[in-house]
């Protein structure tokens, strides 16, 4: 049995790349032996900063979190199997490193788009599966008027294949 990855650190920072990596890793890290689906969802929800214009509603969070392969129903079944998942960032590309961002820049200064390739290890009491997957993380940073004055916040992520930014 592998040890759970180190705790996720989403401390306030202006380093949007580091924040994107930690968020991506955290979205793909949980342990059904010590957490419920509600616990895992609440942790990820606490990172999602709602924008005043309503452009990133919680309905998107739910859809994208479920696109990671976990729903309340599946988590209950996974819990019976002592399931756990760890995510490790393999690479990160942000902003103009992404062709889609070059073609369609973010609509305001301070909004950053990063795509992180995460190596995921899914384990149960009797099985282990390893794979890599991309996740796009959106971060709102100063000088954006909707960002905190001294740090960046996650305002969204995309795990569905048709929404990943390359």
Q: Order of strands side by side in the largest beta sheet?
A: 1-2-3-4-5
Strand content: 25-35%
Tell me the helix content. Answer: 25-40%
Number of helices: 5
Low-confidence stretches: none
What is the string of SSEs from the N terminus onward?
HEHHHEHEEE
Q: Based on helices, strands and strand pairing, what is the structural class?
A: alpha+beta
Q: Tell me the major beta sheet.
A: 5 strands, antiparallel
Outline, from the CA principal axes?
globular
Mean pLDDT: 94
First and last CA, distance? 34 Å
**Rg, Cα atoms, Å:** 16 Å
DSSP E strands, number: 5
Describe the protein in words:
By secondary structure, the chain is α+β, with helices and mostly antiparallel strands. The protein has helices spanning 16-27, 37-47, 58-66, 72-80, 99-103; strands at 30-31, 84-94, 111-123, 128-140, 153-158. Strands 1-2-3-4-5 form a five-stranded antiparallel beta sheet, covered by helices on one side. The chain is globular and about 50 Å long.
List keywords for this structure.
166 residues; alpha+beta; five-stranded antiparallel β-sheet; 5 helices; 5 strands; 28% helix; 27% strand
